[in-house]
Fold each of these.
Amino acid sequence: MERFDLIIIGGGIVGLWSAYFAAQRGLKTVLVEEHGIAAGASGGVLGALMPHSPDRWNAKKQFQFEALNQLPGLLQEIEARTGQNVGYRRVGRIAPILKEHHVDDVARRAEGANEFWQTEQSAFAMQHMDAGPAANWPAVEAMPFGVAADNFSARLSPRKLIMALAGSLHGSIDMRFATRAAFLGEKQVTLGDGSILHADKVLVSAGLASFDMLRPYAPSISGRGVKGQAAVLGTDLDPNLPIIYSDGVYLIVHDDGTTAIGSTSEKEFTEGRETDHLLDDVVEKARALCPIVKDAPVIERWAGVRPQAQGRDPLLGVIPQHDWLYVATGGFKISFGIAHLMAQSVLGALCGDETAPSIPKEFTPGNRLPR
Ligand SMILES: Cc1cc2nc3c(=O)[nH]c(=O)nc-3n(C[C@H](O)[C@H](O)[C@H](O)COP(=O)(O)OP(=O)(O)OC[C@H]3O[C@@H](n4cnc5c(N)ncnc54)[C@H](O)[C@@H]3O)c2cc1C
């Protein structure tokens, strides 16, 4: 039996950031991934880092705000360490306004941004504009009452970040791929080849599979998968163009000039990895929004299943009555913007480090159990 300080189950964005901070803390760590790096929801193409709307402020919005602020510095650290670029750029976002009375909502959010989106270094803002900053992005008729524009949203390349993160871990933690982890008992995990790992702490960051894995230890914790489909168009556009977000459809230009289009949001599905006509509909909506991508070929179609914990907040922290068992999942649609802070705070809890970022009470497993 091999012994570790920490076993991390799952090599998606949450598991990899957790491994990164575990290594920084000097924990003897093994990460187990059933398939390959980013085989789950983290292997996608969009990479939007969009803040929650700056009104009706709450703990989840504050957590995401702090995470989005911290992310550029951490990404620079990873890039410097690996020499790999992760495709990050703070390009802002424009959201076409489709109904006149929504103009007032933007004014209210702009006030909220002035209050909540401020740090000592940066003042982020939202404002109403008659049109986006670039011609035909989107088409004039797609923004009958102008746009809500913010300068806080950003994007990155999910796959590039995943590869860089995995590369940065080389030599500092043990990684086991193509092998499935299953609980054998307290602090013990068995792998597909029959070998047994033992650790003081186990962190489940297995995306959607986390909910089933935890059931024996926390039967009342639940979650579900929400399938998403996305595509990449072979464009050659300016990578500084802001993200467009309209009625559930995103257009995101990446550093190579291609445009990622997303996403469907499917609660009912049979095959989580396959794309179908629902993606065609999203692509058609995107083409109608921005006729400059009208004839661009679809060069990739992709689907994955987002983990959504019951109650919609991320699920983060210790499993009550099992002080060796931790969970970090349920980032749902915003994981790439918060996974690093989820990782730091769960590692802090796991190490009993009170100086680490704290976990909002709403996120904790203890908060989801019947009282
Ligand atoms: C179409 C689409 C678009 C999206 N767009 C965005 C976006 O623009 N911005 C954003 O922030 N988020 C976005 N998301 C959401 C984001 O991708 C997910 O929330 C995130 O990837 C979840 O990461 P995770 O690490 O929790 O789970 P996963 O990436 O699913 O990782 C879990 C890993 O655990 C492994 N695993 C499972 N069971 C076991 C086991 N028993 N043993 C070992 N390994 C196991 C799996 O193989 C998997 O690799 C999008 C998702 C989709 C589907």
Amino acid sequence: MIQNEIKKRVVVLGGGIGGLAAAYFLARLGRYDVTLIEKASCVGGLCGSFQHQGFTLDYGAHKLYSVIPGILDEVQSLMGDRLLRVAKKNRIFLRGQLLDYPLRLGNFAQAMGLGLFAKLGADYGVEILRGLFPRSAARSYAEYITRRFGSTAYRLVFEPLADKVWGRPDELHPEMARTRVPASGGWEIILKLLGLKKETQETNAEFFYYPRDGFGALGESLKKGIEQSGGKVLLNTSPTSILHEVDRAAHVMVNDGGAEHILPCDLLISSIPVPEICRLVIGETDPELTKVVHALEYRHLVMVYVFIRQPKVLEDQWIFFPERKFIFSRIFEQKQMNPDLGPIDQTVLCCDFTCDADSWQWQASEADLARHCIEGLVNAGFIQSTDVMDTLVERRESFYPRYDLQYTDKMCSISQALQKTTNLLLTGRVGMYNYNNVDHCLDMGRFISQKLMQGLSAGEVWRELDQRVGQYKIVD
Ligand SMILES: Cc1cc2nc3c(=O)[nH]c(=O)nc-3n(C[C@H](O)[C@H](O)[C@H](O)COP(=O)(O)OP(=O)(O)OC[C@H]3O[C@@H](n4cnc5c(N)ncnc54)[C@H](O)[C@@H]3O)c2cc1C
């Protein structure tokens, strides 16, 4: 163990899984004096849990799964028997029916009706034939998906769901589809539909892990791990400014709600939203860059919890709703993760969806949002309105990065400007403006610590991490 005097001082901004993972893996090395700054009163960020009316509730459905070697082992060694292994069950609600997900030929054809199903197949065949000839790379999400699944499948399933989740799919970058859509299309999807080829663990998990006490227990365990390794986690604390010495961030000024403190730092790792770290590190002196930072697009997240006087409502953990007539994109039953997370004779459904700041959904009152969700659940046949006991609305601003067609250019300019601070690294989902999952956040933290241990500079780690993150895929 290296003595305190010669340990490098690391300040990590943000205590979601992105920041916690970086702090945890670095603190564990024993070579760094790590301090994590979190503005909220608890860690976990969007992966936190909270208590309400006898339930432990997560912020939307969160499962833990990974195909990145070693990541699940790390979580298992951190959480031991507090981790449940859950058989995954989720479906899509389309045209009044629950369809298996991934799609299977039998019930998909039944739900579509013969005419529509034939059209879907014909469009799909056309795209396969077109794919036999060379063509330029897809320029948008819409083009990417249409080429893989045909225009009918795009219009029926992908376009409405993408419109609900990210907005305006014609103006979405194809990268959004590459990271988010598991099947590769072409003959592969036909074979899978016919049951002649199985999904792999790279595209679809058959099980996942879930912390027995709610997803928030993962963040709490990471926090404990940081503290056990001698690191500090400061809650209710925000950075107010960053003082530079030449090209390095030398001190972070923080406020804990009462007083201002100064934290010296040799390395600064940020997992807070990109616009916030830009304001702290670069300021707003360059009008062109400020414009670019403000042009990064985000979607807001709304979660409406509907408390129901029934022991259980679903057979699935969560169900997707691509159709526009439903306000929500997905419903999630918390007790499907662990029945002990709520009273025995009651359950709760979390209806989640994203929207723009100027949308009616974001502007709507809590009562209106609750009414729309209850109506949707009743119309879909999942609940009766008389069973509803209560509702709760949670909103999170700017959580979903929205990759528009110019997002890579924007992030390139921003990265160049931020990298002038030579001891700065970004990590996490909101921190890197990258559409990723919990296992990716854990991997980023581990990767940063490994590369620093190998003696790489922050700039070198930044470049290697960028490449690694570019390969991440979301496993459904
Ligand atoms: C509805 C939904 C479902 C999801 N389901 C899954 C799933 O099933 N499996 C999965 O692996 N992933 C899932 N994800 C993704 C997962 O939630 C993210 O990958 C992860 O939470 C990102 O963590 P983060 O640390 O980057 O961001 P956050 O969780 O947003 O953490 C950022 C932290 O920084 C803090 N902060 C912000 N500004 C400041 C500041 N100025 N000073 C100090 N602190 C600050 C915030 O309070 C927060 O704690 C889901 C996401 C959503 C929205």
